[in-house]
Amino acid sequence: MAAPTPITVAYGDGIGPEIMEATLRIIQSAGANIAIETIEIGEKVYLRGVDTGMDPGAWESLRRTRVFLKAPITTPQGGGYKSLNVTTRKALGLYANVRPSVSYAPFVHTLHPTMNVVIIRENEEDLYAGIEHRQTAQVYQCLKLITRPGSEKVIRYAFEYARAHQRKKVTCFVKDNIMKMTDGLFHKIFDEIATEYPDLEHETWIVDIGAAKLADTPEMFDVIVMPNLYGDVLSDVAAQIAGSVGLAGSANIGDQCAMFEAIHGSAPRVAGQNRANPSGLLLAAVMMLVHLQQFAVATQVHNAWLKTIEDGVHTYDIFTDGVSRQKVGTAEFATAVIDRLGETPKVLTPVSYDLAQPMTLWHQQVQTKPDKRLVGVDVFLDWDAGSPNDLGDALSRVTYGSLRLRVITNRGIKVWPDGLPETFCTDHWRCRFMGDNNEPIPPSHVVSLLQEITQAGFEPIKTENLYFFDGVPGFSAVHG
Ligand code: NAD
């Protein structure tokens, strides 16, 4: 037998220790070939003053084993504590968050008895880059970052996952009718990568109607890939409409490391009572076993769990009179699953991971550097001393080289020249200065222009350079 694979385990907070104990007992009874390193994370570590909730020794273990089975943690109330999950995902490069949502009708109540959807959420960027600023008395900003490599990684993973797991279709959710550059890039890369997978159907939905369809007719979806924020929200919706967030596991996959956890939190109100459902963490552990290529053990555990659910042995959260047969606690549920190892479900569809194909993961594409030309600058001002026309008149007198004021917007709507008096304005103004006919301008002219603006009595709070890339504008057009 091969040497056991080292994995890092954290028991977490609240119900964490109970559900982790149950999970490990089940997978070890099934013969999981693992060597466990335990680390402490979460509330106690935060309260010791470690703002990430994880000690340096814990990081060492994770970087050594590269596989992390994590129970939920409690983030202490109050400010100053960083999200352990967000930090772990970004620090270890866990770019794909994989969340299957499956119905177990008629044994677990759901309005969608044939639902079987996997949401693959981009995990590192989008509005979760955590780059936020207060810029004026009235205005706060959060930067949405979508990158080519970040999008390529998660989208390729989605197609590879679909192929390896015998799925038929990959759907992309974006909002590129509004965010034409950021979500537009995600959509474009999705279309590019889809051409490499002619055996799989692909389609794109605008996220609003896509979300409505997902909530109403989830059967029409198979694998869905989407940017971080949409994926965060919709994977919880999907898990809940499949039956319960308490049943869903998730995998956070990177090129070098992976983390597996339930999607629910530490449920402090039921902690320490042997009541919590360990299913979410157990199904996450099944995903871990697949990742470790221990396919037979993964298959056996998953089928025994399905049989337990089918036999009506249920924890309180999914217990329904007339459907469930036996209400059990966490430890008894684990024993029931162990008793069924080697059995397969009769009504629910059994799983088989033996067919799982190895996946081709992302590799850096060779990209030619685009020709990049500076043609202007958006100068953002903190200003509340008059009307848009007052500002336009004053700034029209401020120039440098060929840089001249062309347009002013407030919250993205054009207010000068020819704005509408009805448009509501805040104290945050974007003033677009460009040269003539998109001619290139020297970067030093931007700095000199800022000096002129400051000397004219205005307060620039930030700038965004305006570039053309290979002759295509790298900035959004002005509305209004
Ligand atoms: P929660 O998921 O802990 O609980 C939501 C509801 O679901 C509660 O009614 C709870 O009793 C129930 N529930 C959740 N898991 C269950 C299970 N396995 N069995 C039975 N019932 C279950 O969400 P919350 O109450 O918003 O958060 C509690 C704490 O968990 C907070 O400190 C939060 O920061 C943390 N949290 C951690 C993670 C994580 O570590 N990945 C994720 C979400 C929330």
Automatic annotation (TrEMBL):
PROSITE patterns: IDH_IMDH. It is an enzyme of class 1 (oxidoreductase). Its cofactor is Mg(2+); Mn(2+). Residues 6-337 form the Isopropylmalate dehydrogenase-like domain. The keyword Oxidoreductase applies. It catalyses: D-threo-isocitrate + NADP(+) = 2-oxoglutarate + CO2 + NADPH. Keywords: Glyoxylate bypass, Magnesium, Manganese, Metal-binding, NADP, Oxidoreductase, Tricarboxylic acid cycle. One of its GO terms (biological process) is glyoxylate cycle. GO terms for molecular function: isocitrate dehydrogenase (NAD+) activity; isocitrate dehydrogenase (NADP+) activity; magnesium ion binding; NAD binding. InterPro entries: IsoCit/isopropylmalate_DH_CS (IPR019818), Isocitrate_DH_bac-typ (IPR014273), Isocitrate_DH_TT1725_C (IPR040978), Isocitrate_DH_TT1725_C_sf (IPR046997), IsoPropMal-DH-like_dom (IPR024084). Its EC number is 1.1.1.42. It holds the Pfam family Iso_dh. Catalyzes the oxidative decarboxylation of isocitrate to 2-oxoglutarate and carbon dioxide with the concomitant reduction of NADP(+). Belongs to the isocitrate and isopropylmalate dehydrogenases family. Homodimer. This is Isocitrate dehydrogenase [NADP].
